[in-house]
Amino acid sequence: MNIEYSRRLEKIESVLQGILPSGASADWFETSFGALPQAVRMVHVTPLLDPARDLVARGGKRWRPLVMVLACELAGGSDRAYALTPIVELTHTASLIHDDIEDGAVQRRGEPAIHIKYGEDTAINGAAWLYFQSFSVIDSFPCSDSLKLALYQLTSRELRRLHLSQAMDIRWHRDPSLVPVRSEYEAMVTLKTGTLARLAAESGMLAGGADPGQAADMGELAAKIGVGFQIVDDVLNLASGNPGKQRGDDIVEGKKSLPLIMHLEKHPSDASFFAEGFARAREEGITSDVIPVLIDRLLDSGSVESARLHGNQLIERACLTLRGRYPEEPAAALMIGLFETLLAGMQL
Question: Which of 29, 44, 169, 291 is the most exposed place for a label (fewest CB within 10 A)?
């Protein structure tokens, strides 16, 4: 990877290790929990830290914290945003743990899902803690009270939106016969993947000194890019399988992604075929022979390719807008290069 990205990612990793330490100092306890009874020891905290450290250590693109850092640089804030990057990465990590429980997933990033490895109770509690732990970096961020308030309000709003999106997704994956219309799906993805991208870009701009309107505009662009990446990721799940997951496990989990929605727009008579197939896949699991049959139907109709093109176009258009707004800014060029590199790595 370009050295300009690598050196920023190294700093991000250092910050993440500091907020999720293998051994917690007295300062970390104070920052995270305030004054505690003397009986509380590290052994009591490890059920919170271990699942999070495990999942973070498995990798991930870290594109959201990188977007936050670059947005801050774009606003003239230099390296101020590094201390805030756990807001998006811890929130993302927490959402993955909860998603896997709610979707019945068994694998994440090539290893057993956190609830499989540590137990569902520990996974639920640890992920819930992560949402709140992310706010601790705002508490200790050196800035005005007005900026802290803005960061709190932004983060709180986006977390509420994130949970709304999951409520929509759960409703659809519970019922094999229930398929959202395209506008509903796009709304869900905007509130899910789009909201974390928005949070990264908007909070980075605010930390860098941008006015709220400028920060909100950058957040809107990032949200569109996030939606594009989610669509392409859904396509990959059907076409070749996502890294660390198995091809077609979205079908087992009952996820109704854009290729299916596009297919049913053109072939509504296939609704019962897919409803029965999704129900069977849920019952039989990832080894079910119905999964390739369903995928082949989507591939043959061209809906997988149509969805891929749509996701690509969302990302490319947003990058063109970003390039037009900041034609001479190195941070904008790096942000565009990041998105283009990620997109190239996700092509079929």
Answer: 44
What type of residue sits at position 95?
S
Q: What is the pLDDT of residue 88?
A: 97
Structure letter (DSSP) for residue 20: S
Q: What is the spatial distance between Cα 222 and Cα 31, in angstroms, rounded to a whole number?
A: 31
Give the domain ranges of the chain.
3-345
169-177 — which CB contacts under 8 Å span 24+ positions?
Answer: 169/255, 170/102, 172/254, 172/255, 172/256, 173/103, 173/253, 173/254, 173/255, 173/256, 174/254, 176/254, 176/274, 176/275, 176/276, 176/278, 176/279, 176/282, 177/271, 177/272, 177/275
Contact criterion met (CB below 8 Å) for 273 and 290: no
Report helix, strand or coil for 256.
Answer: coil
Per the listing, tokens 């139907």 go with 297
The SS3 assignment for 164 reads: helix
- Report, at the CATH architecture level, how domain 3-345 is classified: Orthogonal Bundle (1.10)
The angle formed by the CA atoms of residues 134, 18 and 218, to the nearest 5 degrees, is 45
Distances in Å between the alpha carbon of 254 and those of 45, 250, 280? Answer: 35, 6, 10
Quote the percentage of the chain above a pLDDT of 70: 98
Could you tell me if 106 and 115 are in contact, meaning their C-beta atoms sit under 8 angstroms apart?
no
Cα(212)–Cα(190) distance, rounded to whole angstroms? 20
Q: What is the mean pLDDT of the chain?
A: 93
Name residue 314's amino acid. Answer: L
Give me the percent of the chain exceeding a pLDDT of 90: 84
8-state DSSP, 180: -
Tell me the pLDDT band of 239, cut-offs 50, 70 and 90: confident
